[in-house]
Each structure stands twice: as structure tokens, then as C-alpha cells.
């Protein structure tokens, strides 16, 4: 991680002290924000991804212990260095027991502090490396299919430039996975990959999600919030289902791409932004343009480089390896023993048409693993699962309930257990979703 990507928040109610600290830290290239109030600092921490907080111990509105406790409650992984005077070393040591990374004595040589900061940075980089190594085994980025091989190759090439990319393909073919891969292969990889699904939000909510808002910008905006475009600073912004963005939102995005700055809703302040845009859609944008639902100029701007990801049924030669990959991955996740696949099942899976593409294949394997009690995945379990659509022993109400349950569970998994977004996507209220979860005995994994 480069120093500029390492975000530090300095909290001290003595403005002069936090200013001088930030000058020292900035001279090393770190990105520094300062705050004189602990309460406001907590708000900032909620809104932005910091890597380190350097906080004074004695402050007027909250003492160091309390601030530390609240930071750790909010963000366990966020490191805190306590700054203290000679008189309160005992407290600083106590703070370390409570989770502070280390402490720094105010009158000491600042190189000591810089040394501690670089330690936090090194540890953070190591943790991220480990995370990335385990993430790379999350995806199978190999293919025997010629078209898919070309797509992976082109994704690697385009990753080296800053070109905007448009990913086309049916739902579940792995557009987000490819977008993430492009980010990981690019020199923006030490910054964040920020995905936003445009279908999950109403127009106002999407714009506030993207551009952020100032406190009081509209009813319900109770605090200032940083948008996803700002969070993608230095990194990659992935806009999924871009066809769902309204014409107004498209104009605003076009302006951001041209002017390279945003204004939070309710503010005139220009905030410079630098990110790569990757968009995806499973709709025909050309038809949407003809119907006046999608701006042509925006389309040309986002589609400098277009990749069309084939449906899984068009790359049948990859199914077997993918089945084995998911069996291994999911059984490890569920802590189940190594699993064998019955040949009849494999033969069925190789011929099946997968209207839901890779997502459907993954879900099928997950269900089969859950149903297997002896370590063997069998075709009969697959059919048992689909039985309700073939057998005639269920009432209409039961069939409806089963279908609803399966669909809600699938959507919850897709939205990573995020309830509001799931409700939004299902077109019901959060309360209705809660009721369904209770009635249908749905298990929510976060
Ligand atoms: N190459 C791959 N290796 C492993 N898993 C994959 C791969 N491609 C896709 N998947 C899995 O398939 C599921 C669907 O992938 P993804 O969300 O990227 O599809 P999508 O095309 O963006 O779907 P949608 O259009 O519905 O948003 C995810 O669970 C993802 O982890």
C-alpha cells in the first residue's frame, strides 16, 4: 500500500497540535484528516475508511478510553495510537490493554510516532495480502472455452489502462467477478473496489448513495454521508445494472466523468475524484437508447471497452471444473468432509442449461452439499429439491411459499444478507421482508 492510500485521522482538541502532527504525517505522504471533537471524529470514522486514528487522551467532550471503546465497537480492525503527556502514561498503558495499538508521548521526537505509523501500515498491508490470497481462491479465472479465454486475456490487458469498461451478459455470468478481477490486475488494486447495484435504490437514494449528502440535504439525511464515488477514490467504481440509472442520474455521472469532481447533495463544494469506472448490464442498452431511456452520449462514455461474458451454457467445457471448484470451496466453508460426486449427477450437471448461470450452479452445489449426509453428492437430492414443481401433492399455497422462500433466500445471498437492499430489490418493504423471514423460516446469513 502506498502512503497516499493510508488514511489517518488525527483527533486532538488543540487545533495547533493536530495541525503540526498532520504536517509531519503529510510530509511522509500520508493522507491526513484532523478533528478537534471526539463526537465529530466518530461521525467521520463512520463515513470514511480510515486505517489509523491518532487520538489525544485528554479531550473535553470524551476521554480517550471512551473514544477508543466506541471506535473498536464501530470498527474492530481500525488501529488507534494514543497521544499522551508524561503525566498519564499509566492511562496510555491501560488503553493498550483495551485495544490501542500503541502510545506516543507528546514531547517526544516525532520520528518515534512515524515509526509506529509505519508499523501499523506494514501490518495492515500484510493482513490485506493474506486476505487477497484467500480471495483469489474465491474465483476460478481459468477457462477451456476460447471465447472466455479471450475475455480473461482482454480483461488483463484493459486492467493496465484507465479505460472505462462495460460488461455485458446475462444475470449470474460473473460480471462482478470480472470487474473485480480487472481491479485486482490494475495498479489501482491497493485502493478500493466499490460495487453499487443501481437496481437496489430509488432515484434519490441512488444519487445519495453515489454522491453522498450533507446533513439536512433532504428529509431523513440526519448526518453527512460520503458517497460511493468518493469511497472509490484512487480505486474502481463498479456500477451494476447501469440500465436502471435514470436519465437524470446518467447526466450527473457523465458530468462527474468529464469534470472529475463531485458535489455532495446539499453542498456546492467541489470534491476532486479519481477512479476507474466499470459498468455492467444484462439489458439491451441500445434498445433503451432508442426508447429514450438511456442517453447515447453516456453510453459512448462508459463503453470505451466492452466485454460480453458468455452464458454458462455456451461454455459447457468449463462446467466440470467449476462443479469441482465449488464443491471444494463450499464444503470447506461449511466444514464438511471432502465430497464425491456421483457420475449420474455430473452427467446431469454437464447437460443442464443454467438459466441463472454460474450463480445457479453455485446454488445447486450448495444445496446438494447441505443435503448430503455421507459425503456423496447425488442426483436424487437434486431432483428432491425440484420435486415441488413435478409432484402433485402440494396445495397452491405451499408451492407459492416454497418458491417465495427459495427466491428470498437467493436474493438475500446475492445481497450479502443486506436486508434493506434485499427488500428494495424484491419490491417489498423492510417490514414485509421481516414478516416473510419469520413466516417462511428463512435463515439470514450476514
Ligand atoms: N469465475 C468464477 N469463479 C467462481 N465463482 C464465480 C465466478 N464467476 C461468478 N462466480 C459466482 O457466481 C455468482 C454470480 O456472479 P456475479 O455476481 O459476478 O454475476 P453477475 O453477472 O454480476 O450477476 P448480476 O447480473 O445478477 O449482478 C457469484 O456468487 C460469484 O461468486
From TrEMBL:
Domain Sigma-54 factor interaction: 141-370
SMART domains: AAA, REC
Coiled coil stretches, renumbered: none
Entry keyword set: ATP-binding, DNA-binding, Nucleotide-binding, Phosphoprotein, Transcription, Transcription regulation
Lineage top rank: taxon: Bacteria
Residue ranges constituting the Response regulatory domain according to the UniProt record: 7-121
Molecular functions per Gene Ontology: ATP binding; sequence-specific DNA binding
Residues bearing PTM 4-aspartylphosphate: 56
Signal peptide: none
GO BP field: phosphorelay signal transduction system; regulation of DNA-templated transcription
Function noted in UniProt: May play the central regulatory role in sporulation. It may be an element of the effector pathway responsible for the activation of sporulation genes in response to nutritional stress. Spo0A may act in concert with spo0H (a sigma factor) to control the expression of some genes that are critical to the sporulation process.
Stated name of the protein: Stage 0 sporulation protein A homolog
Source organism phylogeny: Bacteria, Bacillati, Bacillota, Clostridia, Peptostreptococcales
Amino acid at each position: 500500500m502506498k502512503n497516499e492510500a493510508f488514511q489517518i485521522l488525527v483527533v486532538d482538541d488543540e487545533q495547533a497540535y493536530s495541525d503540526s502532527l498532520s504536517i509531519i504525517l503529510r510530509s511522509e505522504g500520508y493522507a491526513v484528516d484532523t478533528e478537534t471533537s471526539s463526537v465529530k471524529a466518530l461521525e467521520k470514522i463512520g463515513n470514511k475508511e480510515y486505517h489509523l486514528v491518532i487520538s489525544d487522551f485528554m479531550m473535553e467532550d470524551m476521554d480517550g478510553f471512551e473514544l477508543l471503546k466506541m471506535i473498536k465497537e464501530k470498527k474492530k480492525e481500525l488501529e488507534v495510537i494514543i497521544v499522551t503527556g508524561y503525566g498519564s502514561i499509566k492511562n496510555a498503558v491501560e488503553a493498550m490493554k483495551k485495544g490501542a495499538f500503541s502510545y506516543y508521548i507528546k514531547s517526544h521526537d516525532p520520528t518515534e510516532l512515524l515509526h509506529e505509523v509505519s508499523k501499523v501500515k506494514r501490518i495492515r498491508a500484510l493482513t490485506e495480502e493474506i486476505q487477497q490470497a484467500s480471495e483469489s481462491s474465491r474465483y476460478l479465472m481459468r477457462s477451456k472455452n476460447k471465447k472466455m479465454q479471450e475475455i480473461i486475456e482482454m480483461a488483463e490487458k484493459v486492467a493496465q489502462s484507465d479505460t472505462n469498461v462495460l460488461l455485458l451478459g446475462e444475470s449470474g455470468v460473473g460480471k462482478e467477478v470480472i470487474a473485480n478481477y480487472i481491479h485486482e490486475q490494475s495498479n489501482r488494486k491497493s485502493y478500493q473496489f466499490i460495487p453499487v447495484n443501481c437496481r437496489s435504490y430509488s432515484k434519490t437514494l441512488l444519487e445519495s448513495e453515489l454522491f453522498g449528502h450533507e446533513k439536512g440535504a433532504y428529509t431523513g439525511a440526519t448526518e453527512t454521508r460520503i458517497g460511493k464515488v468518493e469511497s472509490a477514490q484512487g480505486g474502481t467504481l463498479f456500477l451494476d445494472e447501469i440500465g436502471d440509472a435514470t436519465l437524470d442520474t446518467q447526466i450527473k455521472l457523465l458530468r462527474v466523468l468529464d469534470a472529475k469532481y463531485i458535489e455532495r447533495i446539499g453542498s456546492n463544494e467541489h470534491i476532486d475524484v479519481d477512479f476507474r469506472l466499470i459498468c455492467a448490464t444484462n439489458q439491451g442498452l441500445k434498445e433503451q437508447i432508442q426508447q429514450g431511456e438511456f442517453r447515447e452520449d453516456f453510453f459512448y462514455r462508459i463503453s470505451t471497452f466492452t466485454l460480453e461474458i458468455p452464458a454458462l451454457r455456451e461454455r459447457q467445457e468449463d462446467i466440470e471444473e467449476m462443479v469441482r471448484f465449488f464443491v471444494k470451496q463450499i464444503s470447506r466453508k461449511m466444514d464438511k468432509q471432502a465430497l464425491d460426486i456421483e457420475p449420474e449427477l455430473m452427467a446431469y450437471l454437464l447437460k443442464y442449461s443454467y438459466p441463472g448461470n454460474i450463480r445457479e450452479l453455485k446454488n445447486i452445489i450448495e444445496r446438494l452439499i447441505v443435503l448430503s449426509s455421507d459425503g456423496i453428492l447425488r442426483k436424487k437430492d437434486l431432483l428432491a429439491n425440484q420435486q415441488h414443481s413435478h409432484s402433485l401433492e402440494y396445495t397452491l399455497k405451499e408451492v407459492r411459499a416454497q418458491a417465495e422462500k427459495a427466491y428470498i433466500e437467493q436474493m438475500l445471498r446475492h445481497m450479502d444478507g443486506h436486508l434493506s437492499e434485499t427488500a428494495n430489490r424484491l419490491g417489498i418493504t423492510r417490514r414485509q421482508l421481516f414478516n416473510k423471514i419469520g413466516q417462511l423460516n428463512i435463515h439470514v446469513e450476514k
